[in-house]
Every structure is written in C-alpha cells, then in structure tokens.
C-alpha cells in the first residue's frame, strides 16, 4: 500500500475527526514532509480536506486532514 492510500485509510477511519501531519507521520513512521505531500495530493484528487484546525490526536492547532464536508 502506498503512503497516500495509508493516509486516506487512517483519515476515513477517524472521520469526522481531523488528524495533523505530525500525528500521521508518527503513526506511519515517515516524515512530515512526506505526509504533507501525500495529503496535499489527496486534497486535490479525493474527498479529503486540508485546513488549519485542532488535531484529534495531539489536540494542537495546526494543519490537519479530514474527510471533506458534503
């Protein structure tokens, strides 16, 4: 499974709670830079939304990814 698919799976499982790049990176054992690039691609191509908000994992305000609102 490629990184984009792993990120999408995690975000869908956590819906509607957003998760930040740092928590995703820690969970997937990759860098934030890798997560940021993959999540940006998913934001453009699928129903995931990138925004600034509170992460449901670490409770900090930063860039998060979540399911897009319909």
Explain how this protein is built:
The structure is a single chain. The chain has helices at 3-14, 21-28, 32-45; strands at residues 19-20, 48-54, 61-67. The chain has one domain (3-67): Arc Repressor Mutant, subunit A (Orthogonal Bundle), CATH 1.10.10.10. It has 3 helices and 3 strands; from the N terminus they run αβααββ. With 70 residues, it is of the alpha+beta class. The mean pLDDT is 91.
- Contiguous low-pLDDT stretches (5 residues minimum) are none
- Strand percentage: 15-25%
Structural class: alpha+beta
Radius of gyration in whole Å, from Cα? Answer: 10 Å
**Which architecture would the CATH scheme give at its second level?**
Orthogonal Bundle
State the gist of this model.
The chain is an alpha+beta fold and 70 residues long. It has helices spanning 3-14, 21-28, 32-45; strands at 19-20, 48-54, 61-67.
Labels describing this entry:
Arc Repressor Mutant, subunit A; three-stranded antiparallel sheet; 49% helix; alpha+beta; 70 residues
Outline the secondary-structure elements.
Blueprint: H1 3-14, E1 19-20, H2 21-28, H3 32-45, E2 48-54, E3 61-67
Helix pairs in contact: 1-3, 2-3
């Amino acid at each position: 499974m490629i990184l984009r698919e792993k990120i999408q799976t995690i975000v869908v499982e956590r819906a509607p709670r957003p998760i930040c790049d740092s928590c995703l990176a820690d969970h997937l054992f990759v860098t934030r830079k890798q997560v940021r690039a993959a999540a940006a691609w998913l934001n453009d191509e699928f129903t995931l939304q990138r925004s600034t908000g509170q992460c449901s994992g670490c409770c900090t305000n930063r860039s998060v990814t979540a399911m897009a609102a319909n």
